[in-house]
Design brief:
Oligomer: single chain
CATH architecture of the largest domain: Orthogonal Bundle
Largest sheet: 4 strands, antiparallel
Strand order of the largest sheet: 3-4-6-5
CATH topology of the largest domain: Helix Hairpins
Shape: elongated
Number of domains: 2
Strand content: 5-15%
Radius of gyration: 39 Å
Keywords: Carboxypeptidase, Coiled coil, Hydrolase, Protease, Signal
Order of helices and strands: HHHHHHHHEEHEHEHEE
Distance between the termini: 53 Å
Pfam families: VanY
Helix content: 55-70%
Structural class: alpha+beta
Protein name: D-alanyl-D-alanine carboxypeptidase family protein
GO molecular function, one term: carboxypeptidase activity
């Protein structure tokens, strides 16, 4: 089971070296946040791994319980057969004791001459002819019963110990993850909204998001935009945060977004409502999480907002595709990382 580093105290993040040029407070804070974010992400990753191990252990435990039930079933069968054998053995012993002399009774237990004792009557002879096989079978059943009981007890003990240990590991990881997440949340409250979103959006998620079909990207691989309810693929979202910051600095307000990532079901709805103005479901860049529809003036070609984006969007990896000028005409539609207007 992997272990986590102890959470670094927040105060240690703010220490600046006394020798040489000191980094800015913002740079120290960003580095602190990034380091803590990585620790929190690592804790969550370890927690997920431990949880998977727990599930594997539960499956193994279920299989062990099946094995245990089988052992107990065999044990019950052995007990039943022992009970069945005890009857004939008791009859042999009882018949032998009823014969004159001690030789007959002792022969059943391996002492004296079994031939003279067991030949005394035809009934005893009939019962005694399988005496040794019954005794051997009884001994074998007794040994099997002891082995089954021992195996069942050992199986129960090992399962209980393993289950307790994995649960302790998971509980410990939950505590560490919660502590790191709490520290991260407290530090994120001190930075700007755009910077906060950037620090909580992991760019590495973009590669995984590309593995999913258009419009079927799970929410965990998308990052939220400053506009409530809007999401994009991680790399597109990170670029959008920067563009939004520059836009807000110029116009005094953040960008207006009417649409962003679009699920396959939502794309089918839009396609049905706007035939000829929406991409065929499964082909839209909205479904890839790398397109937005904008408002707030951008939807009007030639407006200050549209012109600003046309002049600056490329610096952030965003483009207004050439097709959106005519087929169909969509000045509001912008895409990340695609061939577009030159």
């Amino acid at each position: 089971m992997p272990t986590l580093r102890s959470a670094v105290p927040i105060a240690s993040f703010l220490v600046i070296a006394a020798v040489g040029s000191a980094p800015s407070q913002a740079a120290v804070r960003d580095n602190s946040l990034e380091d803590l974010r990585k620790q929190a992400a690592g804790a969550r990753s370890d927690l997920e791994k431990a949880t998977r191990q727990m599930e594997d252990r539960r499956k193994q435990l279920a299989a062990s319980q099946d094995q245990l039930r089988s052992k107990l079933k065999d044990l019950a069968a052995a007990d039943r057969e022992l009970d069945r054998i005890r009857g004939p053995l008791a009859m042999i012993a009882n018949s032998s004791y009823q014969q004159p002399g001690a030789a007959g009774s002792m022969a059943i237990f391996g002492v004296g001459d079994p031939g003279s004792a067991l030949r005394s009557t035809s009934d005893v002879t009939y019962l005694a002819k399988d005496q040794q096989s019954l005794v051997d079978r009884a001994n074998a059943l007794q040994k099997r019963r002891a082995d089954l009981a021992s195996g069942a007890q050992d199986l129960q003990a090992r399962n209980a110990i393993a289950q307790t240990k994995i649960q302790q590991d998971v509980n410990g990881l939950k505590d560490k993850s919660a502590r790191l997440t709490k520290q991260l949340t407290a530090m994120l409250a001190k930075v700007s909204p755009d910077r906060r979103l950037a620090l909580t959006c992991d760019k590495s998620l973009a590669a995984d998001a590309k593995k999913f079909p258009n419009g079927l990207i799970p929410a965990k691989y998308l990052c939220p935009l400053p506009q409530k309810g809007k999401q994009l693929r991680a790399d597109a979202a990170l670029a959008f945060y920067k563009m939004n910051t520059a836009y807000r600095a110029h116009f005094g307000r953040q960008m207006c977004v009417t649409d962003s990532y679009r699920s396959l079901a939502n794309q089918q709805r839009v396609y049905a409502e706007r035939p000829g103005f929406a991409a065929v479901p499964g082909t839209s860049n909205h479904g890839k999480g790398q397109a937005v529809d904008l408002c707030g003036g951008v939807q009007n070609q030639g407006s200050p907002q549209f012109n600003w984006l046309r002049a600056n969007a490329k610096r952030f990896g965003w483009l207004h595709p050439a097709w959106a000028y005519s087929n169909p005409f969509e000045p509001w539609h912008w895409e990340f990382g695609t061939e577009g207007d030159q």
